[in-house]
Amino acid sequence: MNRRGALVVLAALGVGGALLLAQPRPVTPAPDSPEVRFVQDMRMHHDQAVTMSVLVLKVARDRSVRSLALDIQLGQEEQNRQMEAWLRRWNAPDGAPPGAMHAGMMGLATPDELLSLKTLPVREAETQFLRLMLRHHQGALLMARPLTGSPQPLVAGLARQVTAAQGGEIHTLGSLLRAREATPLPAPAGMSHH
């Protein structure tokens, strides 16, 4: 390469480096920001989905239920690891468990509902899992949608990922319930029906 070519390459690298430096760096969200609260709440929400999936996997025989439960468990465990890392990086606490009313709005299962996954006969436990997870996912959409346009790129990306993945799983859960001629649970307040 001649000297002029080398200078052009160096100049291009310099401009590229300057552009990288000029990119806005993601700002650490404040501890009381909607972004931190969303990540704290979604971590707890994912914890419960993993718990429900593990419980039904211990008893379920239906291949479709088992496959869906395993997908949910693995996907949400992975997202939880990401969220734990963000909270550590932001020096933010894990968050407090929601009160009963807030838990209902999030679509969370009650302790008795979780227990039923262990105590119901197999077919009924599978159906109960589908009902609980459908309501649970509907709650996740309510939580995620307001954050899809967040200025914090990590949070906006997660909110969009949750909305896409769980929106798709809601259709699967609904079709599995219809195949069983089972009625879904009432959706969390604020959830529009499709």
TrEMBL record:
- Domain DUF305, first and last residues per copy: 35-176
Which regions form coiled coils? none
Q: Name one Pfam family in it.
A: DUF305
List the InterPro entries hit by this protein, alphabetically. Answer: DUF305_CopM-like (IPR005183), Ferritin-like (IPR012347)
| Superkingdom in the source lineage | Bacteria
Put simply, this protein is called DUF305 domain-containing protein
